[in-house]
Amino acid sequence: MEYFLQQLINGITLGAIYGLIAIGYTMVYGIIGMINFAHGEIFMISTFITLISFLILGPMGGGIVAVLIIVLIITMALTAVYGWALERIAYRPLRGSHRLAALISAIGMSIFLQNFVQLSQGARVKALPPVVTTNFKILENENFVVTLSLMQVVIILTTVFLMSLFWVIIKYSALGRAQRACEQDRVMAALLGVNVDRTISITFVMGAALAAVAGVMVTLYYGVIDFFIGFLAGIKAFTAAVLGGIGSLPGAMLGGLLIGLIEAFWSAYATVEYKDVAAFSVLVLVLIFRPTGLLGRPDTEKV
Amino acid sequence: MEDRTQKKSEMNPLPLSNWHAHRNAIRDGLISCLITAVLLIPLTGIYSVQDGGGLALKYRIWELILSIICVFIGRFSLSLAESGHQKLSICGGLVLFLAGALWSGSHGIIGVLGILGGVLIVIRSLWSSQSGNFTGSLECIKKLFQNTNKQWSPHLSLIMVLIAVIFPFLPLTDRWILDLSILVMTYILLGWGLNIVVGLAGLLDLGYVAFYAVGAYSFALLAYYYQLGFWICLPLGALLAALFGILLGFPVLRLRGDYLAIVTLGFGEMIRIILINWVSLTQGPNGISGIPRPTFFGLEFKRRAAEGAETFHQYFDLPYRPIDRVIFLFYITLGLVLLAHFFIKRIRNLPIGRAWEALREDEVACRSLGLNPTNIKLSAFALGAMFGGVAGTLFAARQGFISPESFTFIESAIILAVVVLGGMGSQAGVALAAVLLIGLPEWFRELEQYRMLCFGALMVIVMTWKPKGLLSRRVPSVTLENIERTRTGG
User: Fold this and answer.
1) pLDDT in tens, B345-379
2) Of B8, B131, B374, B453, which has the fewest CB atoms closer than 10 Å, so is most exposed?
3) Domain spanning B157-465, CATH class
4) pTM above 0.95, yes or no
5) Nearest residue of chain A to residue B248 (CA atoms)
6) What is the rounded distance in angstroms from the CA atom of residue B381 to the CA atom of residue B252?
7) How many angstroms separate the CA of residue B95 from the nearest CA in chain A?
């Protein structure tokens, strides 16, 4: 029971991180219908920016909370610029051409960014000593202690907050309306005065900023990063987005949570080596029985 | 693509007045400067190194400033070239070129980029100074190329095959080039196999490497446990891969588009993870070595034969040359590639091939005409997988050693890039793209660390330059002659 509870906590934390990255995939997919394959690399870049800015700001003193908030803001801003530049360079010239062209361009960008970071930051794993070390004991018996770290609480709360914020933005703001309009019909939206290019750019910026939040959390929570983490995190997050139903914001969250839980429980009760296999198998099973994901709308076939 | 260039030429019909053009150019330059600075400072300008127990920061201030200056000059002259002020922009290009040449000694990659950028800008401004605009000249070249292509294409393919046949005996050919051409041909096989799935049947498969791995591992394992040779394992590997294609394809082929893409990607990763972790069978990450080489009707290409057997050079009474083995493998690969080409060319005209293309264009229409989409998709998947298996067996025979390292997602991405860059559905395009993407980077082995960087950049550049692929030909193999097609691509 105690063990189960501990895994539940770990799984939810992991799931929150996957969910944050998955939103970037799902928003971009919703609006331009392409897999933004380089999104995982954007996340990876944000972990490196976190590391650098923390190493600069950390020794300057000031309260740890203030430092962390400044690091978060810097990382979100810089990563957002990366997201914007990515869209501008690799995707905008390809708008309106075949879907696979954009996908190849995205994969190319992903390879480029990975090697760019490897060359400029080095190929070795970087380890940051844990910054926030407060732990709460919630359950204790003679041989097992269930702990909930402050970092986990922060991760879960931030994720819930950001999710609701974005949901409100998409549902009620003018920007969100523009985004949904572009999602339905780009030409019509443009005719009605929506600046489609800018809306798409903002979508990329938003996705990158959320990935940056995930990046800050991963860097502070796990403390180990290298230039290759973007790939697996990206695939998992995309799996989460597909599992929840791509294009749906709550779906991305649900999918992320499920993937996180599956991974945590599979590593705990079965084998750690096959945790990725388990995540993908669940994806295949869900898609066989619900081909558009858990919360996705069934798409109608047009002739 | 045509639309875009047309729009561009409409957008700047008149050269702007000097003052406006210069102001715009400076503004563009400053903006891109600023963005470059923001992008580069946190990742290139500052980097962390392991220092004792913790991490220490280091700075690359000079490189940063140099690259920002390069970006400014580049963007400035490009803006000028676009607004028709070629003199100043050529000057800018030359300055960039010289700066690049100057810095290439001390700051390698920035210098190279500067040289390249300078050359491109000069070319761009020279183009725009010509009376006919850029698009016009390109069209001209295209037409010329198409005409010669039509006249020469039957001869051209024959000539190419002849060159390939005598290739091992050309004076400049050494072992390294032969080895490289075997690798390129393996990728051509892979590209054609994936082309059936992606280009003809229109199914996006991101885990094609799984079948490549199945082919390679079935050869390696059969050789390791049952001492089977290459010639038995080649058809077995192809068969097993095709079987795998059917097994994997069966549950997932009713998914559409990107759902299929992510599931195939998942399968590719799963196979790799299983290969790594099933140590008792596959020896895990250590891989399998000592895979036997192909034999010439039972004659080995070794210096000394095993007991009671003869080697190739003993039997034919030739002096022993190690390169003979490579030449032999070259011919096997060439034969398989030609066979595959013939096979795919024929099957595209069979009902099954036509059904693939029909399915790609419109699934609903296909179903209403009484075709069974699942069976058609399965056949495409299985045939594509079969080519993957053949290529995998060849790969194992060439390397003599395989490990799960060789079958990562990047490999799938490269094969997909070969297909899409070549122009989906085009056999010659795929071959061209394989030479370009596999052969060219190998050539620059010395630039080892920048190789994958350039590879990624090349993928983005070629795609944004020609989104339909180098030799795009997405016309169905069979059409009704007199009906004008209203829908192309999609």
Assistant:
1) 899 889 888 898 888 888 888 888 888 888 899 99
2) B131
3) mainly alpha
4) no
5) A284
6) 11
7) 25
